[in-house]
Design goal:
Elements (H helix, E strand, L loop, with lengths): L2 H20 L7 H8 L6 H9 L3 H19 L5 H7 L5 H12 L3 H6 L3 H7 L1 H10 L8 E6 L2 E8 L6 H14 L9 E7 L5 E8 L10 E6 L2 E9 L6 H15 L9 E5 L11 E7 L2
Antiparallel strand pairs: 1-6, 2-4, 2-5, 3-4, 3-7, 6-8, 7-8
Helix pairs in contact: 1-2, 8-10
Length: 288
C-alpha cells in the first residue's frame, strides 16, 4: 500500500469517529457506520477494531456516555432524562444501566458529586481510539506567532497525574459559580515540571475583575513573546504526543531557541454539546 492510499484509508476511518461524535442520537448501527466510511458492512467491524483497538459498539457507547457525563456535571439546567435522550438512549432506565456500568454510579449520583478521575479512566479506550486517528504532525502545521501578554487566574495541580481530573472539576465548578465560564473568559493550561520531570499543571482562565479566589488559586501572566503554535482539532485530552513531537522533531529542525516560560495551550470552542471534531486546542512553545 502506498502512502497516498494509506492516508486515504486513515481518513475514511477517522470520518466514522467524527460522524459518531456529531450524531450521538443518530443511527449508529454497524451498517450505517460502514456506509460513512464506504466499506463493506461484512468487514467493517474488524477493520474498525484493528484500526482503533476497540469495537464499534464499545466506541459508540463510550462516546455517548462521555458527553452525557460531561453534561450531567456541567450543564445543571438539563434534566437527567434530557441528557439520556440527547445521548441516544430510548429510556432513562437503559441510560442508567449503561452509565452505572461505565462509571460505577448512577447518573443522579454523578451529578451530585462528579468523580472526574473515574470518568477519565472509563473513557480512556475512546480517547486512545481518537488518538490513533490523528494525522502525523508536519512542520507546515506549525506557525510562528506573537502572543500578547495575558493576565490569568490559576489553579495549580501538584498531585499525581491521575488526579488531574478532580482539579479540573474543581476549576470548572469555580468558574461556573463566578460567571467566568468559557463564554466570558479564555481557557489555558500551563505545563510546568519539577526536577524529576513529573508534570505539574496550572489550569488558567483570563482574568476578570472582582472575582473571589479559592484556596490554592492565584494570579499570573502569560508573557508576551514569540511562540511556535501547533493547532489541534479534537478534545485535546492527551497532549503528550504533539508536545513530544514539537520538542523532538520540530524544534531541532527549526533552528529556534526556547524562551524561559513553559509550554502552554489555549482551548477554544469546547464544552458540553460541542462535537469533538469542532474543538480546538492551540499548543504554544515559547521561543526566544
Amino acid at each position: 500500500m502506498n502512502e497516498a492510499a494509506a492516508e486515504n484509508y486513515r481518513k475514511r476511518m477517522a470520518r466514522v469517529l467524527d460522524h459518531i461524535d456529531r450524531h450521538p442520537d443518530g443511527d449508529l448501527r454497524l451498517e450505517a457506520l460502514a456506509g460513512v466510511a464506504a466499506f463493506s458492512k461484512f468487514h467493517f467491524h474488524r477493520q474498525f477494531a484493528a484500526s482503533f483497538g476497540i469495537s464499534v459498539q464499545a466506541y459508540v457507547n463510550l462516546s455517548r456516555l462521555k458527553r452525557a457525563a460531561f453534561q450531567l456535571g456541567c450543564r445543571t439546567e438539563m434534566t437527567v432524562i434530557a441528557v439520556a435522550l440527547e445521548a441516544g438512549y430510548q429510556t432513562p432506565d437503559s441510560f442508567a444501566r449503561s452509565f452505572r456500568k461505565a462509571f460505577g454510579v448512577s447518573p443522579s449520583a454523578f451529578r451530585k458529586n462528579p468523580d472526574w478521575s473515574a470518568w477519565h479512566a472509563a473513557i480512556l479506550p475512546q480517547t486512545q481510539a481518537r488518538k490513533h486517528a490523528m494525522t502525523l504532525y508536519t512542520s507546515d502545521q506549525v506557525d510562528i506567532v506573537d502572543v500578547a501578554a495575558t493576565p490569568v487566574l490559576t489553579l495549580r495541580h501538584d498531585g499525581p497525574p491521575h488526579m488531574l481530573s478532580a482539579s479540573i472539576g474543581r476549576f470548572i465548578a469555580w468558574r461556573k459559580a463566578n460567571g467566568a465560564g468559557p463564554q466570558r473568559t479564555r481557557t489555558f493550561t500551563i505545563f510546568h515540571a519539577d526536577g524529576e520531570g513529573e508534570p505539574q499543571v496550572e489550569l488558567a482562565c483570563s482574568r476578570l475583575p472582582g472575582l473571589a479566589l479559592e484556596e490554592g488559586m492565584g494570579e499570573a501572566t502569560i508573557p508576551a513573546g514569540r511562540c511556535a503554535r501547533l493547532q489541534l482539532i479534537g478534545p485535546g485530552d492527551d497532549l503528550k504526543d504533539p508536545a513530544n513531537w514539537l520538542y523532538r522533531e520540530w524544534l531541532p529542525a527549526s533552528g529556534e531557541a526556547l524562551r524561559d516560560f513553559p509550554l502552554f495551550c489555549e482551548r477554544s470552542n469546547f464544552g458540553p454539546g460541542i462535537p469533538e471534531g469542532e474543538m480546538v486546542t492551540d499548543l504554544y512553545l515559547p521561543l526566544a
